[in-house]
Each structure stands twice: as C-alpha cells, then as structure tokens.
C-alpha cells in the first residue's frame, strides 16, 4: 500500500462530491472562517439553481464529479447514503492514496468506504447544518492509514465551522440521532414556542425573535457554564411559579420521552443504511 502523502496545508483544494444543503453549509462556513478562500473550493452539479448557489459565494463549479475528484486534495462525499457506493465506485480511478477522503453520509461504515475506494485514507465526519453560521457540531473518526497530521487537518477544517469531537465510529449512529438530525428538532421547538407566543397574544415577528434568542441563550448557558441542563432548568423554575407550571404541562405531554424517541429513531435509521 502506498505511503500517505501529507496534504499541502497552504495550497490544498477542497472538493465536494454532492452539492446539497449540507455541503453548501460547510462550504459557506469554511469561506466565512477564512480557513480557505472560495477559489480553492470546488463542486459539481448539473442543476443550474445549485450551480448558481455555490457560484454566488465564489466556489468553482464543474460539470462532472470526476473533475472534482481529479482536481482536489481533500474530497468530501456529501451525497445521500443510498448512492454513496455507486458514486465512490465511479470515481475510484481518481481516488488515489495521496488524496484525503471524507464521508459525511449517515450510516456508511469506514470499512465499506475504504473497500469501495481501495483507499484507507478515509475519514467519517458527522457535521450539521449550523456549519453555515460557524456553530456546527462535528464528530470525526479516523480510518485506516489516515495519519494524525490528517486528523489535525480535519480538526482545523471542521473546527473552523464550529466545535469538533473525536469518537470511535461505533458511536456514529447515535451521533447522527443527536447532532446530525438534531437541528431539525430544535427548529420545530422554536416554531412551537413562537406559535405559543402568538396564541398568547404576541405579534409573529416578536414571538419568533424571542423564541430563537431564548434557545440560543439557553444553549450558550449549557456550553459556557458547564452546569447540568437539569440544574439550569431548576434555576429558572421557582416554587409555585410560571415556569414549573409550564414544565408540568411538558411532562404530561411526554416532552422528554418524545425527544429521546426521536434520537433513537434517527439512530436506528442510520443503522439501516449500513445494512443496505
């Protein structure tokens, strides 16, 4: 097997195979952070709307995926899990050992990715869409011949769009359920909070602003104080007050159980992808 070649950190090109919403979020976040200029980010898509989206912030857009694979040093596969194998096999001749390969597809194991590409210099990363605003939660797992230097490059790249963690790949289905799919749960919570505000008499714009800022503030408290979420909840819920009355209603509705079930359902769906 060929020896891994260090990626030229000052000049490397980043390619996206798949130009969907998550790829767009990551690309925007990387450009905004200044880690890479848009001129060194490349993707491919035939749909004019998607091409225009990436071109609008300076990303080069090719006609075909093989052009991206040939031209880039770091290649992120951001296609749907159901077609990852097909795409990797199509691009296999271009996925040489000097290239660093990254999959952000849910449920697809490193062992399969490495076999399909005949390249063990692969990573799995599970980021999420808040990467577009520099607030991603990304979990990274190294595979095969990927070196610690490669890992540091991944830390730098994904650290530029939020926080990163290293974890064993066996945890990735659960990671998908919590942070990969998690933004959708929180968007629904914000929408519901705002709807409650409207029902209680607030104008829509004020209700949405208050709901979003409240979620942001609460999350920041958890991250910055290091306190357990339950303790922070208790700090708000004074005896006989409004908050404990609201919490009572949430408990009657199974609020926590529903969220737990949602995470497990997403994790189980991720496991199903690895069996196909």
| Structural domains: how many | 2
Please give the largest β-sheet.
8 strands, mixed
- Helical amount among residues, as a percent range? 40-55%
Give the rounded overall mean pLDDT.
92
Number of strands: 8
Proportion of residues in β-strands:
5-15%
Domain Pyrroline-5-carboxylate reductase dimerisation: 169-272
Pfam families: F420_oxidored, P5CR_dimer
Catalytic activity: L-proline + NADP(+) = (S)-1-pyrroline-5-carboxylate + NADPH + 2 H(+); L-proline + NAD(+) = (S)-1-pyrroline-5-carboxylate + NADH + 2 H(+)
InterPro entries: 6-PGluconate_DH-like_C_sf, NAD(P)-bd_dom_sf, P5C_Rdtase_cat_N, P5CR-like_CS, P5CR_dimer, Pyrroline-COOH_reductase
Describe the protein's architecture and organization.
The structure is a single chain. With 276 residues, the protein is of the alpha/beta class. The longest helix has 22 residues, at 204-225. It has helices spanning 21-33, 48-55, 65-71, 84-91, 110-117, 148-159, 172-180, 182-199, 204-225, 229-236, 242-252, 255-274, and strands at residues 14-17, 41-44, 60-62, 74-77, 100-103, 122-126, 136-142, 162-166. An eight-stranded mixed sheet has the order 3-2-1-4-5-6-7-8, sandwiched between helices. 52% of the residues lie in helices and 13% in strands. Helix 6 (148-159) links the parallel strand 7 and strand 8. Helix 4 (84-91) packs parallel to helix 5 (110-117) and helix 7 (172-180) packs across helix 12. It folds into two domains: 14-172, Rossmann fold, CATH 3.40.50.720; 182-274, ProC C-terminal domain-like fold (Orthogonal Bundle). The chain starts with 13 loop residues before the first strand and ends with a helix.
């Amino acid at each position: 097997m060929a020896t891994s070649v260090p990626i030229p950190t000052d000049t490397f090109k980043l390619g996206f195979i798949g130009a969907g919403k998550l790829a767009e979020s990551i690309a925007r976040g990387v450009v905004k952070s200044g880690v890479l200029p848009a001129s060194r980010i490349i993707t491919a898509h035939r749909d004019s709307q998607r091409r225009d989206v990436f071109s609008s912030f300076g990303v080069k857009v090719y006609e075909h995926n093989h052009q991206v694979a040939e031209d880039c040093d770091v290649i992120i596969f951001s296609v749907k899990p159901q077609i990852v194998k097909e795409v990797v096999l199509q691009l296999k001749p271009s996925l040489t050992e000097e290239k660093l390969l990254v999959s952000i597809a849910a449920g697809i194991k490193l062992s399969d990715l490495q076999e399909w590409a005949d390249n063990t210099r692969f990573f799995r990363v599970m980021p999420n869409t808040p990467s577009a605003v520099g607030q991603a939660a990304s979990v990274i797992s190294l595979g095969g011949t990927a070196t610690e230097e490669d890992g540091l490059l991944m830390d730098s790249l994904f650290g530029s769009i939020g926080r990163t963690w290293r974890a064993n790949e066996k945890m990735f289905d659960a990671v998908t359920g919590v942070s990969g799919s998690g933004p959708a749960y929180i968007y629904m919570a914000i929408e519901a909070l705002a709807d409650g505000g409207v029902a209680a008499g607030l104008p829509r714009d004020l209700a949405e602003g208050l709901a979003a800022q409240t979620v942001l503030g609460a999350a920041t408290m958890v991250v910055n104080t290091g306190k357990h979420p339950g303790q922070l909840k208790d700090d708000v819920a004074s005896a006989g007050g409004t908050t404990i009355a609201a919490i009572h209603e949430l408990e009657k509705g199974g609020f926590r159980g529903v969220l737990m079930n949602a995470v497990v359902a997403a994790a189980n769906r991720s496991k199903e992808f690895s069996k196909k």
